[in-house]
Amino acid sequence: MAEKRDYYEVLGIEKNANADEIKKAYRKTALKYHPDRNPDNKEAEEKFKEAAEAYDVLSNPDKRARYDQFGHAGMSGAAGGGFGGGFSGGGFSMEDIFSQFGDIFGGGFGFGGSGGGGGRTRQKVNRGSDIRVRVSLTLEEIANGVTKKLKLNKNIACDACGGSGAKDASSRVTCTNCNGSGVVFQVQNTFFGRMQSQSVCPVCGGQGTVIKDKCSKCSGEGVIKGSEVVEFTIPAGVAEGMMITVSGKGNAARQGGVNGDLLVVIEEQADPRFIRDGANLIHNLTIPVTTALAGGEVEVPTITGKAKINIAAGTQAGKVLRLRGKGLPAINSYGSHNGTGDLLVVVDIAIPSSLNSEEKELVAKLAQMPHFRNPEKSSKQNIFERMKDFFN
Q: Which pTM was predicted?
């Protein structure tokens, strides 16, 4: 699969472009590669779809913010969909584009209907509503990515009429009020002369067709209450609050329209072993005072199991040890170690709260020895200073 181009590059705009500039740039690009101007040109059709995908993301503030932060990885990862909605992630048809973005083009090109050439009509296509769910993930699932299955109670296409709402194929006929265009025109005499305006056909609601005999099971709606098991993949590295879009898995639309999307909001389960800082993980390691003094090998937890690290003799409380590549994958693939964070081990020293007589005697003897009478002073005893220096 070819690597996706930057959405700003696709539309030929700067990253600080405002909504009006984005809309104008999309209109210009889409008109250039419009199928009516480029008949039987597959390359132009792909560029037309690419522009629609870019506009779908950049025209939505939430999707644009995720894209600016995470790039294309932030818009993908769900079966056929992305971290946004609509068309981000690909897999949409020309009719989807026509129905969703047709109004941007005014009357110059009639998007979203049937027929060929410049005579296409702007028929309305119904769209089902989105469904939002929350999915709770462990750090292990976040580290490796995971496939989930959910059973959803939702509107599904009527099995009796196939979602059309009509009793049979002959029951849906062309609207005589608008002759199948979905719009009606009015001419009015004004101070400036005769003015023509158009509006949605009140008889067919902009669809261009009407149902003569309705399906008895769904009463002409084309949808019924039902359930569906939806399977989708969550990519590695996601974080609390991110949203994955599974295209077309929301509620079915009335009378054979475009289904809504399934919006999966990520929740991150707390893990008592780690604190997450982006792609890095922080683990607080408590060691005995004897290990801090003499050094030794200790075991620390990782996402995949355990790792052994060496504690140097004379280790101070607050020392930070880095295990490279033992953190979480970065969803935007930035950072070190091929986009994987580190495990930062912060050392804490356990001081016994009580001693028996033998232990007190040993401590008293140690206190008289040279290294304990005149301990070396560390210039970085403060844990906050240590952490600040480490991250800087």
A: 0.61
